Amino acid sequence: MNAWAVPGYTESSELGAGASGRVVLAVHQETGVPVAVKYLSESLLARPGFVTGFRAEARLLGGLESPYVAGLYEYVESPDGAAIVMELVDGVSLRTLLTRQGPLEPEAALVVLKGSLLGLADAHRVGVVHRDYKPENVLVVPDGSSKLVDFGIAVDSGTQVGIAGTPSYMAPEQWTGAPASPAADVYAATATFFECLTGHRPYTGDNLAELALRHVDAPVPVGEVPEPVRDLVLRGLAKDPARRPGHAELFVAELEAVAGAAYGPGWEERGRSRLAALVALLLLLLPSSRAGARTTTDTARTVLARPTAPGGLRPWLPGRVGLLLSAAALLVGLLLAYGAPAAPGTAAGQAAGAAATTSTGPSGGAGPGGAASATPLTSPAPPASPSASPSAAETTAAPTGTADPTATASAPATPSAAPPSGGSATPPSSPTAASPTPSATPAPAVKDITVSAFQQTGPWTASATIGVTTDGTGPVSVTVTWYTGDAPGAPGAPDGSAQTFQRSGATRYTLSVDHTFQNAGCYWTVGVVTAPAAAGKGASQQLMTRQCEIR
């Protein structure tokens, strides 16, 4: 559990937890308003891509005003933590309802579908695709209405962001990495509707490949749903996105026409009453039934400024922060958001310089079952050619006990390449102090190669830290190659050209390298070899991209 807590709130209990963080029940101290606070996991705070995605989720919620979507109150960030404070939806997830109560009657299933489709329609209207509609992300409240939650991997419509989502509800085009579209949300909503009616998902498989093939090629099992809604299911689960309703609002119109014709004018009232009765059987699972509040200790009180545009955050401003602390928060926010350099000893510098070495699993939203890849809304398509901007720092022998792989970052940097075209290279100010020509030094033996801090920093970018240890100060060549593939364990195919760095004059070298990938692939690998070759030949590390962290 994170030690850091959002200032100005009294927390009472945990509503859920996942690999990306946790959601807690809290009360705003000044107003008494109950809220849900979603904390980003401590392990992800040092990974800029996840922090950026978390911040993007808050921005998206702040601009989405809908009675069918859990609303945002504020976003709070400091070097010690990040949190989204949002509307508390006092309901149970559709997944819980289906697990505890079994399949729904058609009228109740149609009410659930309509309510969450209206939330999708409001998102589609502002150009946002949810990409992870599923029973875990639909909350049903005691009056039988529902709300949509967890926009953790939502993106702008038309954005090419790779494979992401929950496999059982992913449209055929999502499996191929096609640009995000509202039609994919319609497919996922229909798959959930099918599960509400039948008690099981439309397609299953022993592995992801088999499941993908069934979503792409298998006939729609429409015979398992009641006859009056078969055409609705066929439309929503069409393999070709062009044959589905183009966005949720169109699908709502079709749903209302089908439901009215099949079940009469009172279908919605009856369906909502049935849902309310089912939720009443699960009252002890509602957030409002949780234990009384307890006070937590605030260890940081950094609140970023909130936008005032229409459709943004609510007018009340939780927390009171002094002017000096507000200025510090703004500076930290700017450093975190834009990657501005910071002094190594400052808190902002420590936050910006931290890095993790492995990828993580699924992320949660207002309910903790979402996918991990909190992708920024403005994720660019992959560029036509790879780019790499390596930097390097080297020392002689590191002091005993230095375990931090970034500890050499403050050492004098050695340029790895000539200045770029158009840049300025300042010559030595004293032409008489010419550098002596080094005498020939024999090539050393390479004792060790390490790859650490390999992380995805954006939809198509990654960085890593390379360490090379030798037994002498002679010249050594370090070659870094990047790969993409779809199978774990195997490096896959090379992605772009290898990067080669020449080093000499020390016995330990640390290189920070980054890469922009050209090719799609669920797995990225970075491999390193040296000349002279190391005793172990080389080193590599692989990660599963956020786009492919699917369940």
Mean pLDDT rating: 73
What Rg do the Cα atoms give? 27 Å
Q: For this structure, what is the CATH homologous superfamily of the largest domain?
A: Transferase(Phosphotransferase) domain 1
Put simply, the count of helices is 11
* Count of the separate structural domains: 3
- Broad shape: globular
SS elements, strand count: 19
Q: What structural class do you assign from the helix and strand content?
A: alpha+beta
Spans of 5+ residues with little confidence (pLDDT < 50)? Answer: 291-439
Write up what this structure looks like.
The protein has 3 domains: 9-89 and 287-353, Phosphorylase Kinase, domain 1; 92-259, Transferase(Phosphotransferase), domain 1 (Orthogonal Bundle); 383-397 and 441-545, Immunoglobulin-like. A 5-stranded antiparallel β-sheet has the order 1-2-3-5-4. The protein has 11 helices and 19 strands. Helix 3 (106-125) runs antiparallel to helix 5 (182-198), helix 3 (106-125) packs antiparallel against helix 8 (248-263) and helix 10 runs parallel beside helix 11 (347-353). Mean pLDDT is 73; it is low at 291-439. The chain starts with 8 loop residues before the first strand and ends in a 7-residue tail after the last strand. Helices cover 24% and strands 22% of the residues. The protein is an alpha+beta fold and 551 residues long. The chain is globular.
